[in-house]
Each structure stands twice: as C-alpha cells, then as structure tokens.
Automatic annotation (TrEMBL):
InterPro entries: HotDog_dom_sf, MaoC-like_dom, UPF0336/Enoyl-CoA_hydratase. Gene3D superfamilies: Hotdog Thioesterase. Residues 22-109 form the MaoC-like domain. GO terms for biological process: fatty acid biosynthetic process. The keyword Signal does not apply. This is MaoC-like dehydratase. One of its GO terms (molecular function) is (3R)-hydroxyacyl-[acyl-carrier-protein] dehydratase activity. Keywords: Lyase. It comes from invertebrate metagenome. Pfam families: MaoC_dehydratas. Transmembrane segments: none annotated.
Length: 143
C-alpha cells in the first residue's frame, strides 16, 4: 500500500504494474513553471508572439509534462522512496492551457542486482500520446 511516506519496495514490483496521474494545465502552472525553470520563452507566455508560430497559440513547456511524470512516479507508482536515475522524453505534440494531461507509467524491466526499475512513461491528452519516454528509478528495499 502506498501512503504519503511509503511507496512500494523493489520486492513489490512486477512487470506490467501501472500507475496513473492526471492534471489540467492552468495559466498559473505555465507562469509558475517559467519562474521555477527560468524558461520564459514567449511561445509559453506571450499570446501575440505564439499566434505567429506554427502552434497558433501558447503552449505548455514540454518539461512540465516531464514534471508530471515525476509526480506520477513519486506519488502513485512506484511511490515515495524511488529515486530518478534516467529519463528520456520525446515530445510528439503540443500541450495547451486547459488540456488535461494523463500520465501513464508501466514497469517494463527489473534489475534485481541494482534494484532498478525501468518504466515506460507516456503523457496523453485525450487519446493522443503527446510525450513518450522511458525512466529508470532506484527502488528502496525492505532490508
């Protein structure tokens, strides 16, 4: 069982185990992420600028979806205690303010010697994959 302090242990994991996290992107999310990351690109913050781009409107930071993947792994599955080792991300489509991003993670491989779990990581808006990637996390053990 996962609570705010204790996630799953390496011994609890099985191939195919899944976790889900969802968040609707708000104006505040975009502004706060720009402040935290230092990424003030006008495609994220300036509607007049964004109208002249291929996107025709402002888009969310790609790394914001990456942060939602981190949130899914930290709070849903595997949960508190897992430590990010690597993450690959492919940004396949833009994400906009008011879009609901659904993150799905799934255990794909387990390394018992290193206590690593490899997870497929995907972000969806509606039925469309907008971010695709893979993460490796170091898992806590019971001993």
């Amino acid at each position: 069982m996962i609570d705010e302090l204790n996630g799953l242990y390496f011994e609890d994991l099985t191939i195919g185990l899944k976790g889900v996290f969802a968040r609707t992107i708000t104006e505040a999310d975009i502004v706060q992420f720009a402040g935290v990351s230092g990424d003030y690109s006008p495609v994220h913050l300036n509607e007049e600028y964004a109208k002249k781009t291929r996107f025709k409107t402002r888009i969310a930071h790609g790394a914001l979806c990456g942060a939602y993947i981190s949130a899914c792994m930290a709070t849903r599955m595997p949960g508190p205690g897992c430590i990010y080792i690597t993450q690959t991300l492919k940004f396949l489509a833009p994400v906009h303010i008011h879009d609901t991003v659904v993150v799905r993670v799934e255990i794909r491989a387990l390394d018992a010697q290193k206590k690593f779990a490899t997870l497929a990581t995907r972000c969806f808006v509606d039925t469309h994959v907008v971010v695709d990637g893979e993460a490796v996390v170091l898992m806590p053990t019971r001993d």
